[in-house]
Amino acid sequence: MKNILVVTLLVVTTALHAQFTKGTKFIEVGSSSNDLRVSPTGLMFYVSDEKEKSIVIGLSGGYFISDGLAMKLGTGFSYSKLRDLNALKSYGVSGGIEYYISNKFPVEIRYSASFRDQYKDSHFLTLKVGYAKVFDKKFVLKPFAFIEKSLNNYYANGAGLGVSFSYNFK
Predict the structure, then answer these.
(1) What is the pLDDT of residue 11?
(2) pLDDT of residue 49
(3) For 2-169, CATH number?
(4) With the C-alpha atoms ordered 153, 157, 163, 168, is the resulting torsion angle positive or negative?
(5) If exposure means fewest CB atoms within 10 Å of the residue's CB, which of 20, 21, 32, 130 is most exposed?
(6) Long-range contact list for 119-122, CB < 8 A, 24+ apart?
(7) Smallest Cα–Cα separation from 73: which of 108, 104, 43, 101?
(8) What SS3 state is found at 147?
(9) Are 43 and 25 within 8 A, CB to CB?
(10) 3-state helix, strand, coil in the chain (%, to 5)
(11) Is the pTM of this model over 0.85?
């Protein structure tokens, strides 16, 4: 009985590790790493300290350049309402790196730029930390928290929570 338990644990541990090894590619959707004024990674709702409310849709993809370390690129769209003003649309791109501590705790640093009609472009640096839960050897659920720093004077800093889903493949 002990042997069966040990073998099962080894198989599960190996399968979890395989999801974050060099050469693995992934597609990620679910929740943005910030309000996407624009920084893409999925679907999210956001409120900033400027009384802005947004819905964000985006897609990211990446590649593990070494075990536990991935490069990511993304694109997205957001629809925002700022105070009592008209609704705004923005489009964005982002790039970053993500490191998995013990294959369970992703830490991401991301630069993003967005292009918004009627307003100045925005640039953000985002730090995101979370937890990675692997399902069925290829699907990863990642709840996370983030803080973002505006790199220009036009927009406020922000923080929030989200969740993303990724599909990993070789």
Answers:
(1) 39
(2) 59
(3) 2.40.160.20
(4) positive
(5) 21
(6) 119/88, 119/154, 120/152, 120/154, 121/152, 122/37, 122/38, 122/90, 122/150, 122/152, 122/154, 122/155
(7) 108
(8) strand
(9) no
(10) 10, 60, 30
(11) no
| Residue 42 CB-half CA count within 13 A | 21
Residue with structure tokens 């989200």?
162
Residues in the chain: 170
**What is the band of 80 on the pLDDT scale with cuts at 50, 70, 90?**
confident
∠ CA(142), CA(105), CA(157), 5° rounding?
A: 70
pLDDT grade for 65, boundaries at 50, 70 and 90? very high
Segment 58-78 shows an average pLDDT of 91
